[in-house]
Design goal:
This protein is an alpha/beta fold. It contains 34 helices and 22 strands.
């Protein structure tokens, strides 16, 4: 284990702090302390997690792990021993926080206000819990400390005395935020009272933190303030610019409250930095941002997580101190990176079971952190509670009531068991969202299925369930859920149209998807995700200018929408406007750094712009995010061989692909005479590389060629030739599909055609009578097709697209679009469509009247 470092660290959490609010205050000189911190250190956005609920997020910050690992899933939880509900407890955390890791290594930590931290853990230092500043009785009554809110017990009397009670605040304290507070104290909505409580809580936490910093020995002080979040939920609607529907008197009375609370935090920051000293490293961060402009929702739905709709995806991150870069911006930070970064600051190894990474870009000199399997396996005095420590849920009812008033919890009814069941359901829903955010859809599915079946009248469960089914490609089940939602929830038709559109898009039906999106757009034109999906459809259809316009619509609503900037960059790239494409893709990366596709398309744009070194850098970043990204490796081979004259690096990528990346092969399949040759011809015309030996020449039955490969016939006995098909397309009849070797991944385009048409076409080819066919053979063919379908469904390494021959002949361009979308390639759609000649459709079902023979 690394030797103990002498570094001191101050961590300050400002819940919901947002650069969009801060930057104007910095520009006008109203946050001078933060300005100094920025000039002496690094800043950046920090990406939040889903769902953006504070107890879950701050526990992820403190552990470096997602909520499925740390166990905090809601604002409240059922009491384990009584029929009651309590605020979420520190005893429910299932893994070590950074202060527990540091505790067992002999560091002294002061942890103040962290959410959730009640009851306070018996660490080497002091812990003042999140319930410490809360009022637990009438405002004019005696103010007791919540049980367990102060550790060690020797500090209880002192900490009790330095709290600030809302009733102790005078107009002199309030009027800097609300100038006419004297006239407003008796308003029925009690806004002044609500603000006073938030301000008093912040002052109480600040008093506790600064006293501990000044009067105790410490290695780490971490203090969490939730006053910005509370103030924003109560007063952001009055923040400039004035929102439609906000009365002038309310706007004038409360327009400065939010900015005033930020300025108050800057004043508290000044004192903390003074006490910390120049040699202390400082981390300042928030768990998410808060919409402060035209993106503020006008109305919130009546559901428990509705207040989170006011949150913005990006919070703030700033750091300064010895060895930290100065006056620079960093990219790609996530909440999960904070604890790994703390460990790296102390020269400690990072747990491999942590989901974050150290933010190494903050350091002036390179830092190479070590790793450890899990800090949870390391023995020592962690300062964690024994499993049997619990708190009194009844004593915490006032804290629960505040969460009800903020909108995070439903008001409890008289039936406590029903309240508990609702709370459990919401916690399981939050857990499912965590899994989906991590793309762990198999883990989310059973949770959402159970929630939807038991609560069919709650739309959010059904919407999320349908979305999960879609991501797992369970299309039939997804459509059933959408239909059931339409039957029970007609008022949400725009959302259902949007959901059905995304389903059709994932089924490679872009035109039909566009119809759904346009229907939804008529009602919900403010939805940025909707415009992004419309842009995605247009890009899929290679209508680059229309895609560009759709993404522009999103950016007009939200200039920092990373998805729209990425999509617009792709549109510009395909329009050969390379410099503009580079600019948009870099802007997208600046917001969401770990987007493999943003770096990949940036590489393409830079290559076409002649910036070969930078292109290689972009492709290398994309494979650092996704090592098996075959297309990026192929580009790097091309760059190193043809442009950068570094053949040894090209060889490295070739070797890596051979050893580590399973090849991908496109298969065109179906019964003979079902349209497989036509599809091969389309793909060749579109620009796909075909594996064919041209031994079978075209004839009157197939005047444009068969495009077959002779060795396919012996696939059942020999598949050694399959390496030649790697990255190409080859025709394999349905009867041979089950012999495909599993070492490759496949995309199968399966042609379907009326069996009578197939049999007649085969009769013509065999120069046999067309007015009769062998019914036994037809029956075998039908069973073979069914067997192929079943087998394809069971293969996780095979993705299948079914194309109806008749529809393809009647709608060639739409078929070309569907196939191009399925393959994820920008094919020449017009050339593909031109291959199809309706005159060659010579054995139509309506004309086929066949009699069978045995």
């Amino acid at each position: 284990m690394s030797q103990k470092s002498k570094r001191k660290l101050l961590i300050i959490g400002w819940d919901a702090a947002d650069w969009k609010v801060i930057n104007p205050l910095l520009d006008s000189g109203q946050m001078p302390t933060l300005e100094k911190l920025i000039n002496k250190g690094v800043i950046g956005n920090i990406a939040t997690l889903d769902p953006p609920l504070s107890p879950m997020l701050w526990t992820s910050i403190a552990t470096g792990k997602t909520a499925d690992k740390h166990g905090i899933l809601n604002f409240a939880e059922p009491h384990p021993e009584k029929l009651a509900i309590r605020p979420v407890s520190s005893t429910s955390r299932k893994t070590k926080a950074f202060w527990n890791i540091l505790n067992q290594l002999g560091y002294k930590c002061n942890i103040i206000g962290w959410w959730p931290s009640n009851p306070s853990e018996p660490i080497n230092g002091a812990m003042i819990s999140n319930l410490y500043p809360k009022i637990n009785g009438p405002l004019d009554g005696e103010w007791q400390l919540y049980p367990g809110s102060v550790h060690p017990e020797s500090l209880i009397d002192l900490m009790k005395d330095i709290r600030v009670h809302p009733m102790a605040l005078t107009l002199n304290h309030i009027t800097p935020f609300i100038p006419d507070a004297a006239k407003l104290v008796d308003e029925k909505d009690n806004l002044v009272k609500r603000f006073s409580m938030g301000l008093a809580e912040a002052a109480s936490l600040h008093n506790a933190a600064t006293w501990l910093m000044e009067n105790t020995e410490w290695d780490v002080t971490a203090v969490y303030y939730d006053a910005i979040d509370i103030t924003c939920h109560g007063f952001m609607k009055f923040h400039p610019p004035q929102m439609p529907g906000i009365p002038d008197d309310y706007f004038n009375n409360y327009k400065d409250v939010v900015s005033g609370m930020y300025r108050f935090h800057d004043m508290m920051l000044e004192r903390m930095l003074e006490l910390a000293g120049e040699d202390t490293t400082v981390l300042l961060l928030s768990d998410h941002g808060f919409h402060s402009d035209h993106l503020r929702p006008k109305i919130l739905p009546t559901e428990p997580d509705a207040p989170a709709l006011e949150h913005r995806h990006f919070g703030i991150f700033a750091a300064m101190g010895p060895g930290i870069k100065k006056d620079e911006r960093i990219y790609g930070a996530s909440l999960l990176d904070i604890t790994p970064t703390i460990l790296s600051l102390f020269g400690l190894p990072v747990g491999k079971d942590m989901d974050g990474k150290p933010l190494l870009s903050i350091y002036e000199e390179p830092v190479i952190p070590e790793s450890i399997e899990s800090w949870d396996d390391v023995e020592g005095d962690t300062g964690m509670h024994p499993a049997n420590v619990q708190e009194d849920p009844i004593a915490a009812q006032e804290a629960l009531q505040q969460l009800v008033e903020l909108g995070y919890l439903e008001a409890p009814g008289p039936d406590m068991q029903e309240n508990i069941n609702k709370l459990i359901a919401q916690s399981q829903y939050n857990l499912a969202r965590v899994h989906m955010h991590q793309h762990e859809f198999d883990e989310a599915l059973p949770l959402l299925e159970k929630l939807h079946k038991e609560n069919p009248a709650i739309p959010r469960f059904g919407f999320r369930y349908a979305g999960c089914l879609q991501r797992l490609k369970k299309m039939e089940e997804c459509r059933k859920v959408i239909d059931s939602l339409r039957d029970t929830d007609s008022k949400n038709s725009p959302q259902l149209d949007f959901l059905e559109g995304t389903l059709l898009f994932s089924e490679n039906k872009p035109r039909k998807a566009l119809e759904c999106f346009e229907r939804a757009q008529k009602v919900a034109g403010h939805m940025t995700a909707l415009h992004n999906h419309i842009g995605n459809v247009y890009n899929r259809l290679q209508r680059w200018e229309d895609g560009f316009a759709a993404y522009n619509h999103t950016i007009g609503i939200d200039p920092e929408n990373a998805g729209a900037l990425l999509g617009r960059g792709i549109s510009l790239l395909r329009m050969k406007r390379y410099e503009e494409a580079i600019e948009n893709l870099l802007d997208s990366i600046g917001l969401v750094y770990h987007s493999v596709h943003a770096h990949y398309f940036l590489g393409e744009a830079l290559y076409n712009f002649g910036e070969y070194e930078r292109a290689a850098q972009a492709f290398n970043v994309s494979i650092s995010i996704e090592p098996g990204f075959r297309k990026a490796h192929a580009w790097l081979i091309k760059l190193y061989e043809e442009k950068l004259q570094q053949p040894e690096k090209a060889t490295q990528h070739k070797d890596f692909m051979e050893k580590n990346i399973r090849g991908s092969i496109t298969i065109v399949s179906g019964l003979p005479r079902s349209g497989t040759s036509m599809m091969m011809q389309m793909l060749k015309a579109g620009g796909v590389e075909i594996l064919t030996d041209n031994l079978r020449e075209n004839d009157s039955n197939n005047p444009k060629g068969y495009l077959e490969y002779e060795k396919v016939k012996n696939l059942a006995a020999d598949h050694s030739w399959m390496e030649a098909a790697n990255g190409k397309t080859v025709k394999v009849i349905a009867q041979l599909l089950t012999f495909l070797p599993p070492r490759f991944t496949y995309k199968v385009i399966f042609m379907e055609r009326d069996l009578g048409e197939v049999m007649r076409s085969q009769q013509v080819m065999l120069k046999k009578p067309t007015d009769q066919f062998n019914t036994t053979v037809a029956g075998i063919f039908s069973k073979q097709v069914d067997k192929s379908r079943d087998w394809l469904r069971s293969q996780p390494h095979i993705e299948t697209l079914y194309i109806n021959y008749t529809e393809a002949v009647n709608n060639p361009l739409e078929t070309a679009e569907t196939v191009s979308a399925f393959l994820g390639m920008d094919l020449n759609l017009d050339a593909m469509a031109a291959v199809i000649e309706p005159a060659l459709y010579r054995n139509k079902a309506a004309e086929v009247k066949l009699t069978g023979t045995k």
